[in-house]
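Provenance

Sequences were taken from public entries as deposited. Structures were produced by running a predictor on each sequence independently, with no templates supplied. The record for Helix-turn-helix domain-containing protein from Pelotomaculum isophthalicicum JI is shown for reference.
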Amino acid sequence: MKRRVPTFSEIGARIRELREKHGMSQDQLATELGLSRPVVTKIEGGKKAINSLELRQIADILGVSTDLLMDIGEEDEETLVGRFRARQKSDDKMLVESVEQIEHIFKEILGQIKLWRQSNG
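Predicted structure for Helix-turn-helix domain-containing protein:
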């Protein structure tokens, strides 16, 4: 079954909805994108076409997938890059703890691989 391609107005409305949900102003989004606020207003109003690169940048800033911006994916889908970019300064401690946990898990996996190689080598 072929999916309908959303209009720029629909994509813009989705961008506005998600930007507001994240508590971000048009000025903040514009700054992140390296654009002016009036350009963001045009994007959100469907008055300016956006290309796939711009769509990807907006998705990363808002911490969502491009599918979600096009309203064809899961509501809860987020990208790791987007979540990282959308983090608050108060999240720094949590980020460090998460990285340390990932590092610990990685070392455990490497240890298991080493043991497996020794027993099968």
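The longest helix spans residues 92-120.
Confidence is low (pLDDT under 50) at residues 73-77.
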